[in-house]
Write a structure and sequence with these properties.
The complex is a heterodimer.
Chain A (H helix, E strand, L loop, with lengths): L6 E3 L4 H11 L3 E4 L5 H6 L7 E4 L9 E4 L2 E5 L4 H5 L2 H6 L1 H8 L4 H6 L2 H7 L7 H6 L3 E6 L2 E6 H4 E3 L2 E2 L6 E8 L5 E7 L9 E10 L2 E10 L6 E2 L1 H7 L6 H8 L16 H19 L3
Parallel strand pairs in A: 1-3, 2-3
Antiparallel strand pairs in A: 4-5, 5-10, 6-7, 6-10, 8-9, 11-12, 12-13, 13-14
Helix pairs in contact in A: 10-11, 11-12
Chain B lengths: L14 H5 L14 E7 L5 E7 L9 E5 L34 E2 L5 E7 L2 H10 L1 E6 L6 H6 L12 E9 L2 H7 L2 E9 L11 E7 L4 E6 L4 H12 L6 E4 L16 H13 L3 E4 L2 H7 L6 E9 L5 E11 L9 H9 L8 E9 L14 H19 L3 H8 L8 E6 L5 E4 L4 H12 L4 H10 L3 E13 L5 E7 L5 E5 L8 H13 L6 E5 L16 H28 L6 E4 L2 E4 L2 E7 H8 L8 H4 L23 E7 L5 E13 L6 E11 L6 H21 L29 E5 L22 H13 L5 E2 L3 H12 L28
Parallel strand pairs in B: 1-12, 8-29, 10-11, 14-15, 20-21, 27-28
Antiparallel strand pairs in B: 1-5, 2-4, 2-6, 3-5, 7-15, 8-13, 9-10, 9-12, 13-14, 16-17, 18-26, 19-20, 19-25, 22-23, 23-24, 26-27
Classes of the chains: A alpha+beta, B alpha+beta.
């Protein structure tokens, strides 16, 4: 369990990092927090010739308030998110999800951007980012481009970030005053999600005015349960009303079957967890 | 009077060092040693047709590459079959490096030695081994059906077939008023110590001496095995177990291939060589345990008393049987627990599969046996609509029936004879602790809230402290320091504290003066090892006996010097004094000075022992005819049989009516290991055991696919309970002393994990109202059982007391009824 030998670069600026990546081409691998990459390297499942460490690039880390949006640097750690009152106030769903990630050690090393680009469908930040309608700022040799959430996740471990590019920022539209809950089903606390559902809702006068629902590990990418979102609008935040709206949560999903559950079981869980998440988010 | 030490819950002496990073584990040693790494078989069953190392020799820093062809003499022979047994008719062991066939994924094929582990692994990757694939046998059903064979010369894949019977089971079953048959299954798991195995060898070429450090549970065993393999005189080999980061059984197996190969290479290369196992290696090339299929037929009367018990089981022993059939023998005997079975017959088949080998893991066959017996007790209770605790108590062996001889042979080849225990008292305590009689009221409350809860119970008896022997050696220095050596090894159990408590109490010295060494063949060459919950029983008693010897000697010498009778002396806080007249006294250190007459004064203490220092009797020799110099004591403890500890556990679980999530709400333990040396250490052992038991009940399994690949061979996929999953454990003790040993103690190391799968199965069954016959159980499995139950494929219990079968009040989470 020792990686194959590789060259290591630790640029201190974004421009320098892009230069190193351009030079190394497809033989380079970017390391952010390393919580997924290092096990892969140690098991020799991947053997990049060069590992480019983004850990020393200050400009990639931190959370700023840009009025309508929060901007989260790609190298912001889970622990940074948890410590941020801005995220708690304006994108509570992200906080709820990040709270459940693995264990304290991993939350202090792992980064939001690293997890998003790694794009493990069982990871916990993808579905909330999708549900919150985040925008992904990708920087490459030719400059910056912004990709909407529903175009970011392409497939299993595959995103819109191309060769030689880096995810640099995540722009999260503010959902100030929205209730949020991330309902995660695991057997042991530090495990990857078997299924999880992130819900954030705006309740107005006892009924749900707006709702966003994201599903974790119900397909090859994080998914958004738009049918459920639409069905929830206008309903009172009650058990009965929500139950009916959430019944379709697993429609159109393609969950995996593995040691922790069959696809059927996951569809069942998705329905139950969606209801629980929405009710909790609505404060019911 | 010296502070009471024996029985006191004092804090562990070793913890400040271990908790602040002061431990020295195998991989902390030998920083400049050469590193070994292994090419291991990627196939479960194959013939090796070619090994090509050409590409590897170019890797810089490579010192040597070895295949089986390179091994000389006994190193090239199969590894020893450690524990032969007459019924193990087809025992097989592997080679240190595979000869021409591999029988499980992970079997070592090529050894690489390089200047560091990085380069060694790079070289491993460049070695090409060609295989011709053979049919793979995975799973007990496939092994049993025998369509394909793991070893061509082991027909039916049967390594051993054993039957033990007491009474006439056929007749008992034929005449019993009621009979039931249960088909049960229990999955594989593994020890998973935080520190894997490891070995580091130093060859001293000038003196022809070998020193081995091994992360082992038996340094004397490794020493003897390596000396035999390398054809070295025992006197030229020493083995030391440094701090060991957990064993749980896997490190009592020996010699592992690496334990032979690393010292062999060190001698050949005249260099230090080290190998430290990584986690993937631990998963695929160490050892697993547990996996069994069981069939129980029980005959009983209207009161629920067992009249006859017929058990058949099929035990998966993996690819080889180096540790014999200890595990299934323990299952077949310890299954009986605290009960009188009437007539009993147990027949088992130990079967080969193309999986990593099976050797004892904490509990060692008992969790499987207890699962069979306790599932049976619950089934009888349900059949007759009797209270489950009541059925158990009606079958108990009573205190007045002790010692109780089952008429069977135990794992040590000696009679299965319980020495003591008070099972009715234990059950009473357990029922009070968990609130047994109030549970139905609690269940009703929970059901009113739409919650499903269940209560489970499990009882066990555990033979601990098996022989043949252990020893203790005490030396007292002139400073008053007391050195204690015992040969068995330590993996975190608190031996430094518990053994020191025994010595402090027996000798009358402050515990701070007592220093314990374990697992070092230089200090105590005669020892067996740490397994079978035996360290406290075996070494504890040996150390007590040795301490009594050294104390007697100290009193003899002091009596002579103080000109009083030995009988009038006592030792308090390290000072020998006259009872009732403590001013007439002498520190133990001074006694040590007097015990060793000297010619040379090298310090003030020594000066007092030289020939002109004082008066002496010129007619007597400096050392009396029947004495030896030095204040030393040595003794051994070798019992005629094991001593039997027992315990009873109960748990309350909650199962989510919708997601089938399983949560343990309460976990209660009554534990009886005889007299306790340190109750805090005993509780710690129980807690750790329960945690491992929870792992076995709810999380751990070895997911082999049909080609023999272990699909979950990492901590990402192999789930173990962390602090977040282990319930608070409520424990209470009974102390029924063992009449078999001077201290009255019984073992406690394995206890906690033994009944947990049985208890959790019992509780889930009680919550759900249908039988649970296979463990571990995951939420998806419970969910699928519910679906089978709803369609009628899985019958309900006959007399279930929960109300949820007949529609409870709709809960927040219940699905709408269709």
């Amino acid at each position: 369990m020792i990686p194959v030998q590789f060259d290591y670069a630790a640029p201190t600026t974004l421009q320098e990092a892009l230069g190193v990546l351009a030079e190394a081409g497809e033989d380079a691998k970017v390391i952010a927090g390393g919580q997924s990459l290092l096990p892969i390297l140690r098991m020799r499942l991947n053997a990049p010739e060069k590992v480019v460490d983004l850990g020393r690039i200050e400009e990639l880390r931190g959370i700023t308030d840009e009025g309508s949006h929060l901007v989260i640097g790609a190298m912001t750690t889970y622990a940074d998110v948890l410590a941020s009152s801005a995220v708690r106030d304006h994108a509570a769903l992200l906080v709820e999800a990040v709270k459940t990630v693995a264990d304290p050690q991993i939350r202090h090393r792992g980064t939001v951007g690293g997890a998003l680009v790694h794009a493990d469908p069982a990871g916990d930040v993808g579905a909330p980012a999708l549900a919150l309608g985040a925008e992904f700022v990708i920087t490459g040799p030719g400059g910056e481009r912004t990709v909407p959430a529903d175009e970011f996740f392409r497939d299993l471990f595959e995103t819109a970030v191309g060769e030689g590019e880096l995810l640099t920022r995540i722009r999260v539209p503010k959902h100030t005053g929205w209730g949020a809950h991330y309902e995660k089903f695991v057997r042991v606390a530090h495990q990857w999600s078997i299924v999880a559902v992130g819900a954030t809702v705006r309740v107005d006068g006892g009924s749900i005015a707006e709702a966003r629902v994201g599903l974790t590990n119900m397909g090859s990418t994080p998914l958004r349960a738009t049918a459920v979102e639409q069905a929830l609008v206008g309903r009172p935040a009650t058990e009965e009303a929500v139950r009916e709206a959430c019944a379709a949560a697993a429609e159109g999903t393609d969950p995996p079957s593995d040691l922790n559950g069959s696809a059927d079981y996951r569809r069942h869980l998705a329905t139950v967890l969606t209801r629980r998440a929405v009710l909790a988010a609505a404060g019911a | 009077m010296t502070t009471q030490m024996f029985g006191a819950p004092i804090r562990r002496k070793e913890d400040p060092r271990l908790l602040t990073g002061g431990g020295r584990y195998l991989d902390d040693l030998g920083q400049h040693a050469l590193a070994a790494a292994f090419v291991r078989s990627p196939h479960a069953h194959a013939r090796i047709t070619d090994i090509d190392v050409t590409d590897a020799v170019d890797v810089g820093g490579i010192v040597a590459i070895y295949t089986w062809e390179d091994l000389p003499g006994k190193v090239a022979e199969p590894l020893p079959l450690l524990i032969p047994h007459p019924t193990l008719t087809h025992g097989r062991t592997g080679y240190a490096l595979a000869r021409d066939e591999v029988n499980h994924v992970g079997e070592p094929v090529v050894m690489v030695v390089a200047t560091d582990r990085y380069l060694a692994e790079d070289a491993c990757q460049r070695i090409r081994v060609d295989y011709e694939l053979l049919p793979v046998v995975v799973g007990i059903e496939n092994a049993r059906d025998g369509a394909h064979l793991v070893h061509e010369d082991a027909p039916g894949n049967v390594a051993a077939h054993m039957v033990q019977e007491t009474g006439d089971v056929e007749a008992a079953l034929a005449t019993a008023p009621h009979t039931l048959t249960l088909d049960l299954a229990i999955e594989r798991s593994a020890c998973m110590p935080m520190e894997g195995k490891g070995v580091y060898a130093r060859w001293n070429d000038e003196d022809g001496e070998l020193r081995i450090y091994s992360s082992t549970q038996t340094s004397t065993g490794v020493r003897a095995a390596v000396a035999a393999k390398l054809e070295l005189p025992l006197a030229k080999v020493e083995c030391i177990a440094p701090d060991v980061g957990g064993g749980f059984g896997v490190k009592i197996m020996h010699p592992w291939p690496e334990e032979v190969l690393v010292p062999w290479a060190a001698r050949l290369l005249k260099r230090e060589v080290k190998w430290a196992e990584d986690r993937r290696e631990h998963f695929i090339s160490s050892a697993h345990e547990r996996g069994q299929l069981q069939k129980v037929t029980v005959g009983f009367d209207d009161e629920g008393r067992v009249l006859g018990l017929d058990v058949k089981f099929w035990h998966d022993n993996g690819a080889y049987t180096p540790y014999g059939i200890i595990v299934p023998i323990i299952t077949s005997t310890q299954l009986l627990g605290p009960y009188k079975p009437g007539a009993y017959r147990c027949e088992f088949w130990s079967l080969y599969t193309n999986t990593v080998l099976v050797t004892p893991y904490r509990g060692a066959g008992r969790p499987q046996g207890v699962f069979a017996m306790e599932r049976t007790m619950d089934a009888i209770a349900d059949y007759l609509d009797l209270d489950r605790a009541e059925v158990r108590s009606r079958n108990f062996i009573l205190p007045e029936e002790m010692p109780y001889d089952h008429g069977l042979l135990f794992q040590d080849g000696r009679p299965l004879k319980y020495d003591s225990g008070d099972f009715p008292a234990s059950l009473d305590k357990l029922k009070k602790l968990v609130g047994w009689d109030d549970f139905e009221a609690y269940r009703a409350e929970a059901e009113a809230e739409g919650r499903k809860v269940g209560l489970g119970i499990g009882c066990y008896v555990e033979g601990t402290g098996v022989g043949p022997y252990e020893g203790g050696h005490i030396t007292i220095e002139t400073s008053g320091r007391v050195n204690v050596a015992t040969g068995l090894t330590t993996q975190g159990q608190g031996h430094q504290t518990a053994f020191a408590q025994i010595v402090a109490q027996e000798l009358g010295v402050p515990i701070e003066d007592v220093h314990v060494t374990t697992g070092d063949t230089r200090k105590m060459p005669y020892a067996v090892g740490t397994f079978a919950s035996r360290a406290a029983v075996m070494s504890g008693n040996a150390i007590a006996l040795a301490t009594r010897n050294v104390k007697a000697k100290a009193l003899r010498i002091a009596a002579d010097a103080l000109e009083v009778s030995e009988d009038d002396l006592e030792i308090v806080d390290g000072v020998v004094q006259v009872k009732g007249a403590p001013t007439t006294s002498m520190p133990l250190g001074t006694v040590a000075v007097l015990s060793n007459p000297l010619r040379y004064a090298f310090d003030d203490a020594a000066k007092a022992a030289t020939q002109f220092a004082g008066t002496f009797d010129p007619d007597k020799p400096p050392v009396a005819d029947d004495e030896e110099p030095g204040l030393e004591g040595r003794d051994f403890y070798s019992p005629t049989q094991a001593t039997f500890a027992n315990g009873m556990h109960a748990a309350i679980v909650e199962t989510d009516p919708v997601t089938a999530e399983i949560r343990i709400l309460r976990y209660c333990v009554i534990h009886d290991c005889g007299t306790m040396i340190n109750p805090m250490i005993v509780e710690g052992q129980v807690h750790g055991g329960v945690a491992q038991g929870v792992g076995g009940a709810l999380y751990e399994r070895m997911a082999y696919d049909e080609s023999g690949q272990l699909l979950n061979a990492s901590f990402m996929d192999f789930l173990m309970p962390y602090a977040s999953e282990v319930p608070h454990i409520e424990a209470d003790h009974l102390e029924t002393p063992s009449p078999l040993n001077p201290l009255g103690i019984k073992g406690a190391g394995e206890a906690g994990c033994i009944p947990v799968s049985a208890v959790i199965a019992s509780a889930i069954e009680d919550a759900e109202g249908f039988p649970i016959t296979s463990m571990p159980i995951s939420p998806v499995e419970l969910w699928e059982l519910r679906q089978r139950h709803e369609t009628g494929e899985l019958p309900s219990l006959r007399h279930h007391h929960g109300q949820h079968q007949t529609a409870a009040a709709p809960s927040r989470d219940q699905e709408p009824t269709a």
